[in-house]
Amino acid sequence: MKNLLLTTALLAATALPAVAQQYTPDPNATPGGMITITYKDDVATLDPAIGYDWQNWSMIKSLFDGLMDYVPGTTELRPGLAESYEISEDGTVFTFTLRDGVTFHNGREMTAEDVKYSLDRVTTPETQSPGAGFFASIAGFDAISSGEADTLSGVEVVDPRTIKISLSRPDATFLHVMALNFASIVPQEAVAEHGTDFGKHPVGTGAFKLDEWTIGQRLVFAKNEDYWRDGVPYLDGLTFEVGQEPIVALLRLQQGEVDVPGDGIPPAKFQEVMGDPAQAERVVEGGQLHTGYITLNVGIEPLDKLPVREAINMAINKERITQIINGRAVPATQPLPPTMPGYTEGFEGFAFDIEGAKAKLAEAGLEEGFSTELYVMNTDPNPRIAQAIQQDLKAIGVDVEIRSLAQANVIEAGGAGEAPMIWSGGMAWIADFPDPSNFYGPILGCAGAGEGGWNWSKFCDESIDAMATAADSMTDPSAPERLEMWSDTYMKVMEQAPWVPVFNEQRYTMKSERMGGDDALYVDPVSIPVNYDYVYVTE
């Protein structure tokens, strides 16, 4: 991670063109074959401008490409649809040269006009993209997001293979942003044909293309025979079966019917799996930049009162909740996970203190407590965690009604601002890229608080936003003063308590005996949960 950040800073300082990194095919890979992946919940959309959940993130990664990409299984940046790029000495102008001959799934060649259209589309309010805020540093963002303009003034088509992007300020994270799904390149004619249904009829340049989608049952991806990267993908296709309970999926994996259980190892079966050497051998463990949290909607009474939010923070027994997931996590004290640059060492957060929590409610004039709702994804262990939260809050006089729903319904309620509280489990934040800014903009910043955004607490403090902007307006991502600014930013957030940070979780998944490829591909930090472009079958 450190090397990546230093390299990015060096490029910004010298304006040298980036060299296209080629992928060397795995000599052990056998081309061909289909694999089966299961999920409990259905897929809401495959539109890269909108999709932002556990199921569709890796699917979208395999259907679409952006200008930038990552070395498989790592957070090391490499060029994607851009063959190379140059950065001006002041870090505000990025000039990308596109690869020649890349075609969309519909057969048309991709050009710089498609890049401009895609960036305009993801940032216009009509799209309601939860990722729009990532692009705030591009010149003209404020005008397009306010409706004053319908195009980004900072994105210029130089010629069919050259796109120039000018920023309103230096942005230490910009190359990472261009590798996000939200920055995927889409063909305007396909969006025009399908309109809001483009997410059901996706057309990209990715390693796979959608072949079949039976709503509520399965999605089938077929290999893109014209993919621009030589040698990949190895597989002929992917079958995603939805509506599969995780425990049933695990049983089917044991019987050889499933290759990857997308929802992971059911917590109720974790000890059993790890205690069986044959099954434990197929478990893949990986670290992740993750925080599980409870959002407190500051726009809904009485959560609009700071003492109430502080009381809820003090009432949650985080140690007990980590035991519900077999101790596969550590209690969290702040939004950033401990391994993220900018984490505030020594900050203890809100201590578990029932009497102190009751005193805070009394301070807010709520000695008798109040009633509220907690939304939760209906996949185990999340309902059980919600029940623990319910019990904790009952102890201070807060009556909580649990709304256990499918993931898409929880996301919809959160984006609309209808949910007083949300337990983020199953949707908890895993970094899109290894930089502290990623835990702020989309889930705590003002840009993410709009309709459809992932800032479900609807927290917006313009002074804290200004601190975040200042931190990102530095050329060197790893500068100590920048990381200190981010630490200060999150400490200011904690003073307002829009969240209850609960735990930082380790990641576990399983694969069938026939699956090949480096283990890192199955806990890929970018193509969450699995990088399907580079895995293969051995039989």
From TrEMBL:
<dbReference type="InterPro" id="IPR000914">
    <property type="entry name" value="SBP_5_dom"/>
</dbReference>
<dbReference type="GO" id="GO:1904680">
    <property type="term" value="F:peptide transmembrane transporter activity"/>
</dbReference>
<keyword id="KW-0574">Periplasm</keyword>
<comment type="function">
    <text>Part of the ABC transporter complex GsiABCD involved in glutathione import. Binds glutathione.</text>
</comment>
<dbReference type="GO" id="GO:0042938">
    <property type="term" value="P:dipeptide transport"/>
</dbReference>
<keyword id="KW-0732">Signal</keyword>
<dbReference type="InterPro" id="IPR039424">
    <property type="entry name" value="SBP_5"/>
</dbReference>
<dbReference type="InterPro" id="IPR030678">
    <property type="entry name" value="Peptide/Ni-bd"/>
</dbReference>
<dbReference type="Pfam" id="PF00496">
    <property type="entry name" value="SBP_bac_5"/>
</dbReference>
<feature type="signal peptide">
    <location>
        <begin position="1"/>
        <end position="20"/>
    </location>
</feature>
<protein>
    <recommendedName>
        <fullName>Glutathione-binding protein GsiB</fullName>
    </recommendedName>
</protein>
<keyword id="KW-0813">Transport</keyword>
<dbReference type="GO" id="GO:0030288">
    <property type="term" value="C:outer membrane-bounded periplasmic space"/>
</dbReference>
<feature type="domain" description="Solute-binding protein family 5">
    <location>
        <begin position="76"/>
        <end position="450"/>
    </location>
</feature>
<comment type="similarity">
    <text>Belongs to the bacterial solute-binding protein 5 family.</text>
</comment>
<dbReference type="GO" id="GO:0043190">
    <property type="term" value="C:ATP-binding cassette (ABC) transporter complex"/>
</dbReference>
